[in-house]
Specification:
With 238 residues, this protein is an alpha+beta fold. The protein has two domains: 123 residues, outer membrane lipoprotein receptor (LolB), chain A; 85 residues, no CATH class. It contains four helices and 13 strands. A hairpin with a 4-residue loop joins β2 and β3. It is globular. The protein starts with a helix and ends with a strand.
């Protein structure tokens, strides 16, 4: 009976918090958890991401980011092939095993292009810069915070949409109501169709003072179909 009362009190207090806190306040509390020293704006660091996918070989990506220098590098190893894409401000360099003199056929064979390099830059900077990236220009934060039970856990949920020149997807970010850690996020291209994906975040890896989710497990919204898991680790360069 005592445990039931405590659970009820916790539920009621969480409901009250979701009604009292605004979207901006929730975002700020989460940023304080993940980036307590405000390091993201000057982030310079390197890390590795190991991707595990069903029925496919493990893929390791080594990533270097310098926000002040507008620099991004991605290295991927497959068998004896080391492919690298570098975006340095407006310049782009592609290489295979250190060779930058690549034919169009070779770039196509290894799926290398400057357009793809810039997409990866935006992808990795966005995902590993969350929740701080939600303060970027063009992001529209819904000031109404909701409470939701997802996969058996209670969360405070923040909705984010984007100005049309930035993006079209609708995102939901799920925060631990006690620590404000980001533990789930979810996106839809058309919410009425329940398309898109959700991502479960477990564990933490601290990279240059920023608490980043260590494991990201990706699933389809529609059928809970499993896609892949990304595992973050500190680069040997750090």
């Amino acid at each position: 009976m005592k445990n039931l009362i405590l659970l009820c009190l916790l539920f009621v207090s969480t409901i009250g918090l979701s009604q009292d806190i605004t979207g901006a306040e929730l975002l700020e509390k989460s940023i304080q958890f993940h980036d307590p020293d405000n390091n993201w704006k000057n982030f310079e660091g390197a890390f590795s991401v190991t991707m595990n996918m069903p029925n496919k070989p493990e893929r390791i990506s080594n990533i270097s980011i310098s926000l002040p220098k507008e620099y991004f590098a991605l290295q991927t190893q497959k068998d004896t092939i080391l492919a690298e894409s570098v975006v340095n401000k407006s310049d782009c360099t592609l290489s295979i095993n250190g060779n930058t003199n690549l034919t169009d056929a070779l770039k196509k064979e290894h799926n290398l292009s400057c357009k793809r390099a810039k997409l990866f830059k935006n992808y990795y900077t966005y995902l590993y810069g969350l929740p701080m990236k939600l303060n970027d220009e063009g992001t529209i934060i819904d000031q109404k915070v909701t409470q939701k039970t997802f996969k058996g856990k209670e969360y405070l949920v923040l909705k984010a949409t984007y100005q049309k020149e930035v993006g079209k997807d609708t995102w939901y970010f799920y925060f631990n109501p006690e620590t404000y850690a980001m533990e789930v996020y979810q996106f839809f291209k058309d919410e009425s169709k329940n398309d898109g994906e959700y991502i479960l975040l477990t564990g933490l890896e601290t990279i240059n003072g920023i608490k980043m989710p260590k494991n990201r497990a990706w699933y389809f919204n529609k059928n809970d179909g499993y896609l892949a898991t990304d595992i973050l680790s500190k680069s040997v360069q750090n």
